[in-house]
Design a protein that fits this description.
Elements: E1 15-18, H1 28-31, E2 41-44, H2 46-49, H3 53-64, H4 71-87, H5 91-96, E3 97-106, E4 111-119, H6 121-140, E5 146-152, H7 160-176, E6 188-193, E7 201-207, E8 211-219, H8 228-234, E9 239-243, E10 246-250
Antiparallel strand pairs: 1-2, 3-4, 5-8, 6-7, 7-8, 9-10
Helix pairs in contact: 3-4
The structure holds zinc ion.
Amino acid sequence: MQNKKCYMCDSPATSDEHVPPKCIFPEHKDVKRNLRDNLITVPSCDVHNANKSRDDEFLMVSLAGILGNNSIGYEHYHGKVQRALKRRANRLLDKVFLTKHTLRLGDENKFLDLIFGQPDYARLIDCFTHIAYGVYRYHFQESFNGKIKVFMGFLHSANKNHNAFKAFIAHRAEIDLREKSGSNPEVFYYRLADPDKFGFSLIHLCFYENVNIYVSLMPEGSAPPFDLGMELIKGGIETVVEIEGKQYKFNERNT
Ligand SMILES: [Zn+2]
């Protein structure tokens, strides 16, 4: 810890912080396997380590129960997450969903409660921003200095552009990203793309082999290029972006 700086700021580090939080990884008693080996830690100051447990639990409840997760995520949801929810009399769910609805599928003997609604977008972005800084620090052994932008590919939206961008970035990532890193990839892994000619790079975070987050990193001092495609999309103009012969359409007019 000596002379090490915090992964988020210039203060001296006083402890190690798990990135992503340890509670995301199921305990042995729930899955009968070791999924907590060689977890990633980064040096952290008191401020950036303090009071993180609430955010950690928030993130755990937000991610583990997502439809489409692998069996590890499913068992985690029915183990540790349910215990956390009961302990806090479901108040945690009100933090995860700003508005929520429940849909019961099946009959009274066998059913599945599907909870959906509007997530706490800002708090999720904040959690993934911290994880991206942590992963960068761990991977390159130095702190990232610049701007980070998070795109949550696992959220569903009625917005067509959101969905087109989700498919586009997933395709782009398959071309640019290097191999998976992380000791327990069924729970969490990350992939990095080398910086492009403008210094931009990309990190893909993946939880339970289903929940995808893409993070773009712009180093301090890099001049963002004028991206005509992005400007057209933001301006609401019908735009088609093509990668390897596949077309992604934005602001498509209804015919
Ligand atoms: Zn700090």
